[in-house]
Write a structure and sequence with these properties.
The chain is mainly alpha-helical and 84 residues long. Helices cover 83% and strands 0% of the residues.
């Protein structure tokens, strides 16, 4: 495989990882906002009607996505180092 081909493959992989990072960031943001909305109801609803479990699930999903994003960032940094 030529160096040009290898560079093209790395650049394509880098672009895919950057898109995945942006997607994960948006999903994390959405889960955090959903959890906030569920917990914000505590200001107006009796505590027994607050969906704490739902908020917890949203935050657990956001934490899982954040761990995945850390892996993606590490892969991005590795590829960028190879390209420089």
């Amino acid at each position: 495989m030529s160096i040009q081909t290898e560079l093209a493959i790395l650049k394509s992989e880098l672009a895919d990882l950057k898109m995945k990072k942006m997607d994960l960031a948006a999903r994390i943001h959405g889960n955090v906002r959903a959890a906030k909305a569920l917990l914000a109801a505590a200001n107006i609803k009796p505590i027994e009607r607050i969906d704490v479990e739902g908020a917890s699930q949203q935050l657990l999903e956001a934490a899982k996505q954040k761990r995945e994003m850390a892996e993606v960032v590490a892969q991005i940094e590795k590829i960028e180092a190879e390209l420089n």
